[in-house]
Every structure is written in C-alpha cells, then in structure tokens.
Amino acid sequence: MLLYVIRHGQTDYNRDERLQGARDIPLNATGREQARGNGRALAAAKLELPLEEFDWVASPLGRTRETMELVRGAAALDPTNYRIEPLLIELSFGDWEGFTLADIGVDSPERIAERERGKWRFRPPGATAESYAMLAERIDRYLPTVTRPTICVAHGGVIRTMFERIGKIDGEEAALLDIPQDRILKTDGTKIGWI
C-alpha cells in the first residue's frame, strides 16, 4: 500500500470550532489557499510515481471535493479527474453538529464530561452519530481497497483512525491528535507520518 492523505482545507466551522461532522460545509478563503498549497507541495515532492499515475480519491462531501479540485489544479492536473469514496466521509456528530463544545456544555455538561473520559468510544446523541471506534471500522473496510498508489482527500477523523489503525497509537491518544489542513500524510500500511 502507498497512500497519501490530505485533510480538506479550513471551513468557517473549523475556524469557529464548531462540530461539522457529516454536514456539507464549504471551504473558506484560508481553506482554499491551504488546498492550493498542498497541490503545489505534491507537485514539488519527489514521489514514487508521476502524479497522474496515482489513483485520486475523495470523500463525497463538498469540502473534500473542492479541496481535491484545488489540489489537482495547483498540481497542473485536470481538477475533475478523481473518484468519490463514500467510506471516507467524516464521522457524524449527530445532534451536536453545528454546535461548539462550549455550547453543548451549557445544556449537557455531563455528556461533555463523558466524552472527555473516553473520546474514542464516545458516541454523541442522534440516530446518525458515530464514535471514532465506529469510524475506524468503516476505515477498516476502505484500507484493503487501496490496491494501487493513491492520493486521497478526507477528514480529520478519518486521519485520526488511520493513526490508530496503521500507526498503532492508542485510540484515546489518536482521538486527541491535531490534524493539520496544510500538510500531507503518507503511509505504506505499516508506518505513517507527515511529509
């Protein structure tokens, strides 16, 4: 396996520390520049293959698709030549999406305390909500499909689960990792790190 992973660029929800999860929130100006910067970085990097020989894959959400198109455009590739992978969608925060943790703490301090005691397995309220552990099971289904060198655009939660699964980092530690939006992650299936 050879997989490069880029987190989508910043959105207003990221800037304001709102839980966006599976909500379809667009990039802001900072996020668009982060995406272009990642495209320029890929074009300048000495990768194992020419960029056009990689399989290019994105989560179906608009912020990842826009990031992908900006990355590809900045790397002098056809912006639309990539495919969508539903398994890469961000975890759902259910009823908490759109709120900050401070907002939620006003009405549900006990739920925030529960989350802080075990973020990896914590599932917010709501029928669609997922824990990081649940997301990791979905990523377990995605990783075996990476059968050729791939560049993908996904989400912070997806990358955290890759650190847990591939990097063998404890789930609680992985759930707390800061995932930058202006760097590129590389994994060969046994080790993982930023380039």
Automatic annotation (TrEMBL):
> What domain of life is recorded for the organism?
Bacteria
Q: Which InterPro entries match?
A: His_Pase_superF_clade-1 (IPR013078), His_PPase_superfam (IPR029033), PG/BPGM_mutase_AS (IPR001345), PGM_Phosphatase (IPR050275)
Alphabetical list of PROSITE patterns matching this protein: PG_MUTASE
**What name does UniProt use for this protein?**
Phosphoglycerate mutase family protein
Species of origin reads Hoeflea algicola
